[in-house]
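Reopening closed ticket. The problem is back. First fold of the pair:
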Amino acid sequence: MEEGYRPMKKKVVIIAGEPSHGPGSHEYEKTARLFKVLMDNSNVAAQIHTEYHLNGWPEDERTFHDADLVIFMTDGRDGDKFKDVPFVLGDRMKLMEGLMNRGCGLMLLHFSTFFTQEEGRYVLDWAGGYFECEDENGENIWYSKISVGESLELMSPQHPISSGVSQTIPIHDEVYWKLRFPPADSRMIPIWKVPHLEDADTETAGIVGWALERKDGGRAFCTSAGHAFKLWEDDDFRRLHLNAVVWAAGLKVPLGGVQSRHYTDDQVNEALRSANIPAEEEQTRVLVISGNEAHKWHHWEETAPKIKRALESDSGIAVDLSFSIDDLAEPHLPDYDVIVLNYCNWQDSMGLSDLSKRNLLSFLDNYGGLVVLHFSNGSFHFSLPEAGESDWPEFRNIVPRVWNHHGSSGHDPLGTFTVKVVDYSHPITSGLTEFQVTDELYYRQEGSKPVNVLYSAISSDTGEEEPLAWTTEYKGARVYQTLLGHCGETYAAAEVNETLRRGVLWAAGRL
């Protein structure tokens, strides 16, 4: 791993407990699987990597080492009726203590809030509160209570976790209340409560969801709501939990909250099946061609390794990096699923050899995918300086929008601007919202072939909304083109890396 490299996404580890109730309640496995699909298809998908582990604990505890947030959806202590929350067993408390000390986030959902008084001393520090039904001698004292609540009401509507959530959410479901909170804990922020509970004899008795910011920098969200699986069909109930995931992982909750839709069991299964990492022989093989010695002000030496790293962050993608356009003439070209062009033949009068052209056309005829980045759309064009014999008209049929140096094509000065998603339904941009990027904003690219625009931005030069990415087909082959990618700063935007990854998988026909 390169020095200074940091993963682009926050890592969320979900621990799902073993089943203990009948269908419809305490559905730990189904909830964990649903959470992953919701996060992977949300407007924060580019910022978070979610994994889940069944049966109460991961097979390899090392997965916790780089976790930014751990979520428990499991049984908890209730005498000898159910199993303890998994992290209190054996020497796991030491592991948890290490995670908390380094600022890892923590979420405890529903039954996972049950602890003994002894365990609760740790949980109060890490999470701010818990359900207490057993004293330090192991006697069931039932300090906390269980009732059917009719609704949840927000207590801190301005908190990021409440973003985009209605003030009142109907539930008619089992909730745990009169939880154990330390007196006057300034770290704890109540998020929602169940109103009109009988015997609510303290100010905190009705609180069933809260946030906590620890001194170590870690964040926690806990709620005792969530008994019935059907609650996830409610947009507000779902959004508050997903907002909490983003917040507890240390990210900024997007304006209006995390956007998601309900998935049926079959849809969850299909989404997870489609997202499974392929076996090595089924990996998406990608050839990235970068460079041109005379065109270094496009920083291709800087962007090429970042492109490779962004793609190989997906274990299902294998990348070969080339700095010679002549590699298109190699006989092994059909071994690849996608070709990525990060290249322009600036001041190269020869352009592509006839063999390279035939190979590329044959590759596309056999449904290989093509991804065209930034300045690559100006390649093999008659308007290039010293174009000579490099002009290849067919390239304009393959790549639908090109830079014409003899026309009105141009770009804003290098700077930071806002990218707006145009097509939210496309797999490349699904779940994403507007984002900031540092780049050259290309405008007035030429071409008349119909394209499906994915995102755009307002040019400071033209004052118009300029398309920045689109998809099209060439004789059945998928082509994804983006005008982003000028320099290393461009790839500091998580959305640029995510749309590149998705664009490659889409071009390969795997998204």
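Second fold of the pair, where the issue appears:
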Amino acid sequence: MKRLLRLALVLVCVGFLFGIAPARANNFNLLSDENLVASSEAIITGHVTYMESRSSGGKIYTDITVSISEVIKGRFSSKTIVIEQLGGRSASHQVWLTNSPEFKIGEEVLLFLSADSQGVMHTTHLSMGKFSISRKGNESLIENAARISNGEKPEKADQYIDKIKRLSAQENVVTAELKTMPSDYQQGKGQFIEEFSNFTLLSRRFFE
């Protein structure tokens, strides 16, 4: 995963140097649902409630707070978790990792999560691990930016989530309790993301 992150960051910097806009979630070799489930330590549904960026160790991270509705895979001691994504805004700088997932406060999501060497949770394979759920009346749809960019259409949310539950149940793996937030995270100490209330690539780009 670290190798993937370093490669993506290099691609962003190359694009900046040559005046090329970083690509959105496209040109992916998409994982199947089975592989996505197998490569994730946790799978949850919930709502994004808060986001802020911070600098740590010379890098910029964005901490995304999610209120958990249901845990499909994994174990957490809290109904609220904070996942960490590389990239974000700090002062006059913005770092955006190519094919990062986009988040919006209030958004309902299905998240496939993996942990780094410190146990901090992040989306599995960047945008491939983040699905948006939209509800209108009795209809609910779910979509993934990487899959949409590759020509796939939104699916019925309940049916897709039921499929993920069945795949997770087939693994029958007993997991240890997972970390609910980065150890150095303190809410309110970073830069609250309020512009458009989202974590996304803006038209004006700043790179460290």
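Update: turned out to be a display glitch only; the data is intact. The chain has a mean pLDDT of 80. The CA atoms of residues 17 and 38 lie 37 Å apart. Please close again.
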